[in-house]
Specification:
Layout (H helix, E strand, L loop, with lengths): L8 E2 L2 E2 L8 E3 L11 H7 L27 E2 L13 E3 L3 E4 L13 E6 L3 E3 L3 E3 L5 E8 L6 E9 L5 E10 L6 E2 L3 E2 L13 E10 L3 E10 L5
Parallel strand pairs: 3-12
Antiparallel strand pairs: 1-2, 4-16, 5-8, 6-7, 7-16, 8-15, 9-15, 10-13, 10-14, 10-16, 11-12, 11-15
Length: 223
């Protein structure tokens, strides 16, 4: 189950990085300004295949009062299925779109995340100018259930680690747009202009019955 998709290959074979064992960072990411060069290389997100930030930006949330530019995470609207997503525990694409239909009035699909499931997106190339992301979510199960959200990346030691981005509360069964969730990753601007691949993972906590839709990443510093 690779973290880096099969679109990215080295000479000599596929770079396959297992996501089964993920170390969650209990503290926030260290600031690059206070790290020595050696420590920065260890904790910053690695970019072994030299991905370049080249995301299509739009203002999909303008109708909801958010005028920021956003880039859609790969397959993040689920209108063409969940190609490239790693789905476990019964996670699957279902009929039923978030009700604001920020992508298109024709949108019809979302991702179901029952209790015990998890979903990890394909990788997306970003840099330090992308500090937040937002997602539409709803929970029709236990109202105390939450949706844990993480950003996965490879550090300088070659380990997949997770930046705890926060949780989405599940007290309502109506579709809601999350508050901005932190990317929480340190980027090394001395390498590949600070770019690196990341993935987004969503995991229900407690016996909820979650759906997510329209995962958008915010390049705030580009405004």
């Amino acid at each position: 189950m690779p973290f880096v998709t099969n679109h990215w290959r080295r000479t000599g074979g596929l770079l396959a990085i297992a996501v089964g064992v993920v170390t969650l960072l209990s503290a926030g990411p260290a600031s690059a300004a206070t790290l020595s060069d050696a420590n920065l290389v260890k904790v910053a997100a690695a970019n072994p295949l030299g991905c370049v930030v080249n995301n299509v930006l739009s203002k999909p949330l303008a109708g909801l009062g958010d005028l920021a530019d956003y880039a859609l995470a790969p397959g993040g609207n689920f209108e063409s299925g969940a190609g490239g997503w790693l789905l476990t525990g019964g996670a699957r694409v279902v009929a039923g779109n978030e009700t604001a239909r920020v992508g298109s009035l024709a949108d019809r699909s979302s991702l179901s995340l029952p209790f015990g499931s998890a979903a990890t997106s394909p990788v997306m190339c970003i840099d330090g100018s992308y500090p937040h992301f937002r997602v539409f979510a709803r929970n029709t199960g236990w109202t105390r259930s939450t949706l844990k959200v993480e950003v996965l990346y490879m550090d300088g030691k070659g380990k997949i680690v997770g930046s705890g981005s926060g949780t989405v509360a599940g007290a309502t069964s109506a579709w809601q747009l999350s508050n901005p969730l932190s990317i929480g990753v340190t980027f090394n601007t001395a390498v590949a202009a600070g770019a690196a691949p990341v993935a987004f993972r969503f995991t229900p906590s407690g016996p909820g019955n979650w759906q997510i839709d329209d995962v958008y990443v915010d390049p705030y510093a580009r405004h």
